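Quick one, T. Sequence first:
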Amino acid sequence: SWGPRVAQQVWTAPKAGVMMGTFQLAEDDKTLVLELFTMVEEPEGITFHLRHFTPSLVAWEKPGPTILNLASADPKSFVFENPLDGQPKHAIFTRIDADTYVSRSEVVPEKGELKVTEITYHRQKDAPPARH
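Structure tokens:
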């Protein structure tokens, strides 16, 4: 839960150098945004690719996905940094315990102040009940 909204993130296990994930943000009975992302093992390091979509899969980012590079990692956290702009500038994943992690996004607009979004995710052993 994130205020009146519900955020859900699902990750696949790593396979062939890639982890894939999805994100859905909903409020009441309306999906506000979908996100697809990958963590890719490349010769120069690990990259985090993300792209936001409407529910009908119209992409928000033009012309392509946002790409962040792994800046640092330790057993508890991974920090990715965007070398091109601040949309987002950083994506940080921090493990709290085996079933909990915090996802932090830091957006630095061309004008205005830093915008930080933090969501704490808890592993769901079974599918959560549908909200009607």
